């Protein structure tokens, strides 16, 4: 039976080893398909987790370059039973012009779940600017954030299959978002930040997933100075983090992590 949040359901499984078999029950994540329509045009189908859908829609529109700020959205209506979200932009022609301008030049993301196409302009970093190095934070504080983060997801504890993303500032944890796809989890965090007008210039974002170039672009665009991953980045992600002054760390475990760029933000 599905849980009340439509996030997981319990299956009876057979646990096998070389010398035994036993029946157990395991919570399995539920895939939820959300179709997003913008100004009446089908924009994208997302395979996601049925949780924080408003933040997911808002964050996805921002990171994909459809909007630059929340004031460009007139309304968002989500029909959860139908798996549809209807977005109306204040500029009726803007989205149509974007779709026509990028027709035939799509880039497939490394997102978890069913792959989907994003507009080519997301992969173009020519309109981005490097961050300043003014924000500093103690190294031990970042480690404490990661250790707290790794204990925070109740869904992960029960399913072992969810991605998490959390935002911290000098006061500690602001909020944590979860999804079957690591890109979706990041979008939910950024959508929450937009909706609550969070100042991202003095924050640390922590993700459970690896960091490819399309994910680091989201962080650069949001102007988040520090990104810490439990997994590892790709070569292009490191190069972009270095170019735009993002402090990028990965393989964070216990009392250590790997620093790939802009270590000067961490105070020892």
**Considering DSSP H and I runs of 4 or more, what fraction of the residues is helical?**
25-40%
Distance between the termini: 50 Å
What's the pLDDT, averaged over the residues?
Answer: 86
Which value, in Å, is the CA radius of gyration? 19 Å
Spans where pLDDT lies below 50 across 5 or more residues: 104-123
Structural class: alpha/beta
Instruction: Provide the CATH superfamily of the domain at 137-267.
Output: Cytidine Deaminase, domain 2
Biggest β-sheet: strands ordered side by side in the sheet: 11-10-12-13-14-15
Range of strand content? 25-35%
SSE run: EEEEHEEHEEEHHEEHEHEHEEE
Contiguous helical run count: 7
Question: Largest sheet, if any?
Answer: 6 strands, mixed
Number of strands: 16
CATH class category of the domain at 137-267: Alpha Beta
Question: How would the global form be characterised?
Answer: flat
What is the fold named in CATH at topology level of the domain at 137-267? Cytidine Deaminase, domain 2
Going by CATH, the architecture of the domain at 137-267 would be 3-Layer(aba) Sandwich
Active site: 112 (cysteine persulfide intermediate)
Subcellular location: Cytoplasm
Function: Required for formate dehydrogenase (FDH) activity. Acts as a sulfur carrier protein that transfers sulfur from IscS to the molybdenum cofactor prior to its insertion into FDH.
InterPro entries: Cytidine_deaminase-like (IPR016193), FdhD (IPR003786)
């Amino acid at each position: 039976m599905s849980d009340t949040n439509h996030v997981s359901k319990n299956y009876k499984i057979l646990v096998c080893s070389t010398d035994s078999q036993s029946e157990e029950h395991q919570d399995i994540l539920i895939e939820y398909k959300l179709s997003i329509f913008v100004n009446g045009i089908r924009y994208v189908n997302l395979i996601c987790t049925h949780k924080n859908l408003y933040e997911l829609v808002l964050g996805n529109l921002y990171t994909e370059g459809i909007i630059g700020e929340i004031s460009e959205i007139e309304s968002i209506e989500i029909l959860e039973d139908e798996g549809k979200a209807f977005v109306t932009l204040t500029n009726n022609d803007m989205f149509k012009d974007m779709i026509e301008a990028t027709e035939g030049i799509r880039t497939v993301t490394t997102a978890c779940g069913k792959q989907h196409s994003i507009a080519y302009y997301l992969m173009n970093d020519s309109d981005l600017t490097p961050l300043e190095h003014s924000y500093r934070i103690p190294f031990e504080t970042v480690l404490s954030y990661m250790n707290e983060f790794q204990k925070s997801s109740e869904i992960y504890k029960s399913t072992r299959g969810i991605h998490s993303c959390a935002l911290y500032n000098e006061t500690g944890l602001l909020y944590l978002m979860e999804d079957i796809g690591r890109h979706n989890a990041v979008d939910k965090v950024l959508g929450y930040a937009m909706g609550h007008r969070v100042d991202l210039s003095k924050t640390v974002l922590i993700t459970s997933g690896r960091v490819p170039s399309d994910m680091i672009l989201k962080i650069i665009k949001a102007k988040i100075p520090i990104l810490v991953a439990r997994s590892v980045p790709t070569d292009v992600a490191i190069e972009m983090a270095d170019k735009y002054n993002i402090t990028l760390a990965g393989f964070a475990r216990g009392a250590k992590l790997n620093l790939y760029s802009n270590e000067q933000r961490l105070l020892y």
